[in-house]
Amino acid sequence: MLDAKGQEITSSKAIIKELERIDHLFNLYANRSSGMIDPEGIEALCSDLEVDHTDVRILMLAWKMKAEKQGYFTLDEWRRGLKALRADTISKLKKALPELEKEVRRPPNFVDFYSYAFRYCLTEEKQKSIDIESICQLLDLVLGSQFHPQVDMLIDYLKTQKDYKVINMDQWMGFLRFCNEISFPDLSNYDPDLAWPLILDNFVEWMIAKQS
Amino acid sequence: MAKTVDLEKGWEEMKKGMAKLKATLEGQSDSPFDSEESVKLYTTVFNLCTQNRKSDHTEYAAELYKRYRSAINEYINETKETWHIFSERTSERWSNHNIMVRWLSKFFSYLDRYYVVKQSLPNLAEAGKACFHDLIEQEREGGQIDRDLVRSVVSMFRDVGVSGIELYENDFEVYMLENTSVYYARKALDHILVDSCPDYMLMVEQCLKTEKERVSHYLCPSTEPKLLEKTQHELLFVHANQLLEKESSGLSRLLEDGQVCISISVITNGLESVSTIFREHVTSIGQALVRNAADEASHKKVESKDIVGFPEQVFLRKVIDLHDKYLSYVNGCFMNNLIFQKALDEAFEVFCNKQIAGVSSAEIFATFCDRILKKDGGSEKLTDEAIEETLDKIVKLIVHLHEKDLFAEFCRKKLSRRLLSDRSVNEEHEMSLLSKLKQQFGGQFTSKMEGMVEDLILGREKQVEFGNYLRDNPHENRGTDMSVTVLTTGFWPTYKSSELNVPTELIRCIEVFSRFYTSNTRNRKLTWMFQFGYCNLIGRFKPKPIELQLSTHQAATLLLFNTSERLSFSEIMSQLNLPSEEVKKPLHSLSCSNYKVLIKEPDNKAISSSDVFEFNSMFTDKMRRIKIPLPHTEEKKKVTVDVDRSRPFAIDAAVVRIMKSRKALGYQQLLMECVEQLNRIFKPDVRLIKKRIEDLIHRDYLERDEDDVSMFRYKA
């Protein structure tokens, strides 16, 4: 009994210690006046982690923290993320990143991460869509490694077409569904009678015209 | 060099080989068939075919082919008896049969490659199978055949096939259908020239019935549609024209005589196909009318470019006649059968939506109505009854239009011009057309146009009141007669209000009317549309005074010359306060047309901004009153743009209406219901609907279901 209790105490002590270290780490990068890690802090963190701040893993880290505002981490978000990753030092965090990437790539997580990536880019109040230029970068970042030919073609299309200046969430989710479901580049199982967003109908038409 | 082989000797060899093959298959022989033997047999066939190259080898080949066929037949007949006895072994028997054919065609493969290709006889393997089909043909010709036998053969095809009924379809059905086509093509040719149409139709009916029975007796059910389609195709569609145009008894002829009901009523199954012929027939006549009209329009274009001319008028007259004619058939001969009503509608839908010489059918229909209702409708001088009748018929055709909203918009434009230029025949006809349209397409369709006619009637009452007002207030009477029509914003097409600097004479009139108008109405704002106004001026020319009937813009331009003899273009522009395009039109009509009330420097046919104008005091004409026309510009593009702009809203409203009541709906179904709802107004483009759905998602009216991506939910 006592043993068990003693165990409990040590483990909770350990937890408290860990939290302290996580908070300590936060304070290293946080801006004193705003009490948040701001873009500058993130850049410092990235250089300590030896990853580029545009690396997809930083976006994954933000997803893990459920960070709400692009370029900022609050203390709550930081605690949530690092606790889940069991990382209380820079070197542990660095080691946790490959694991995190694996976790994100698991299918149900990936859909969540993919839609998070879109929402994360909505910086303005009531903003619902993202300009083509940023969408192309984001596509390349989150899908580029997995669906290289699709993403290349899609970006090529998005940059040449004139009908759409911005992309909304529905179209964004359609892109992922397209990459997952449609045989590429022959597009043999693409059925325009299904409820694909119109932009994908146009994309497929464009591709077919290009191929012939 | 191979040694010469005599045909009979060679055939002996073959027979031995075949006997052995048979024995092997029947399990009566112990020694299996080895490749050496098969090579030997092949060599025999090769030798038989190749020797005597110069003279008669083809005859050997032909003979061989004949014998091959009979050998197969023999095999079938021989084994037929055993089928009944060993029914449980039939599928094995069938595969034996196939093996037999396969082996034999191997032996004879040289024959196959060399002779058959040359003579284009059916491939040997096909010849083997054709034997079975001969049986079916025998039955078609009325012969008695062993149906059980054929059924078991057919079921063998099905059972033998490893993956479903592929074997049946590829090895049996294909050939059988081909045979069927050939058979009925022949039969059709035999009968079409001899039979009268009713007899022929009875024959078709009979054939369709027996083919249907055949399927139920011994074929796969999946064959039925294909078989019937082939039969119908050969018997009906190939000869549709002949059937329709048979001199004494063609369908068209019968239609005209009203006799066809006798035969048609007999046919139950053939009804669909007859209606198809009917539809095709009507469509092709209609298409020909469209082509003719297009040709004429393009010829006419050479002569006078800008007038959307009368070929369309003639075209619609013909379409009306066509509709009358065939509707009477549907009602009479076809006893108002729904299938034929539908066929007629479908046919008219095809060619009533064709553009003619770049003009949309919606506009053609609107122009047609306009010509009927105009006072100076040109060639069309109709009695009241004839007008009523024509309107009735045209409305029936408008039902087939896809772009009814576009038609309505053109109608409204033209109605507005008719009403404002006082050309309307009478309000009764206008109202009658509107009530017919209202009946067909609902109150929404005509509410604006009704409002317009209403405005005119009210306007006339107001004019009387205005007269009384002037009489009661003599100080207001300035000696200029004026009549004003007040239009309700919203009913009428939107026009830009004119910024015209009104001549002082008119300003006074306008003030008087405004005082009168505000004295008995409240909170109404008057906007003056001078571009629709007309003025009568007396021109005091030196030879004689002439009354000029002018538009307000023309009059305002001319009145400027009361104070100055010469004016430059830019002076006129600034004094009238109109954009240069608006100034050019009246100036052109006054200085470049037949009536040169103004003298232009330089004297040419176009107005440019450096021109100078002078009043022509020597102007004269043999008439004492002349009308100087101002060419009006058709705003065709604007109409189309307006309509295009209104469609997204209509779609949005329909989608929201549907989703509000259904809460959740699959994409295809939503599309369907949306098209159905909008059909009364226009035939919506599916892509446009999709775009609107996406926009509604974006605006948070709808959302896509997370699990089923082709399902949409209404967000309250």
TrEMBL record, chain A:
PROSITE patterns referenced in this protein's UniProt entry, alphabetically: DCUN1
Descriptive protein name: Defective in cullin neddylation protein
Function: Neddylation of cullins play an essential role in the regulation of SCF-type complexes activity.
Any Pfam family: Cullin_binding
Alphabetized InterPro entries for the sequence: DCN-prot (IPR014764), DCN1-like_PONY (IPR042460), EF-hand-dom_pair (IPR011992), PONY_dom (IPR005176)
Record-annotated DCUN1 domain positions: 17-208
TrEMBL record, chain B:
Protein name (record): Cullin family profile domain-containing protein
Any one GO molecular-function label of the UniProt entry: ubiquitin protein ligase binding
Highest taxon in the source lineage: Eukaryota
Residues of the Cullin family profile domain: 360-591
GO annotation terms (biological process): ubiquitin-dependent protein catabolic process
Family of the protein in this entry: Belongs to the cullin family.
Pfam family, one: Cullin
Classification lineage: Eukaryota, Viridiplantae, Streptophyta, Embryophyta, Tracheophyta
Organism: Nelumbo nucifera
